[in-house]
């Protein structure tokens, strides 16, 4: 099973790339474990603070081990963003 992972902002900097395909099992928790295994620190620290979109849909507050990620899905890794009008 292959999932496209797209990294944004601090996650992109920590991963050293903007996107990649990861072979992972069927939940968001499994996918994040595979990403941590592939990249280690500092990306693992960034992931702890991120929000995620699975095929452009937020899983909300559902536990990651209950969020299904299908073969061919796209998962966006979104660190907290700062800024705005000041």
CATH C-level name: Alpha Beta
Radius of gyration: 12 Å
Q: Termini distance?
A: 45 Å
Strand order of the largest sheet: 2-1-4-3
Largest sheet: 4 strands, mixed
Mean pLDDT: 93
The percentage of residues in β strands lies in 15-25%
CATH topology: the name is Ubiquitin-like (UB roll)
Based on the structure given, which CATH architecture is correct? Roll
Can you give a write-up of this model?
The protein has 3 helices and 4 strands; from the N terminus they run βαβααββ. It is of the alpha+beta class and 86 residues long. Strands 2-1-4-3 form a 4-stranded mixed beta sheet. The chain is globular, with a radius of gyration of 12 Å.
In short:
The chain has three helices and four strands; from the N terminus they run βαβααββ.
Secondary structure topology:
Layout lengths: L1 E6 L1 H7 L3 E5 L4 H12 L3 H5 L3 E4 L19 E5 L8
Parallel strand pairs: 1-4
Antiparallel strand pairs: 1-2, 3-4
Features:
86 residues, Ubiquitin-like (UB roll), alpha+beta
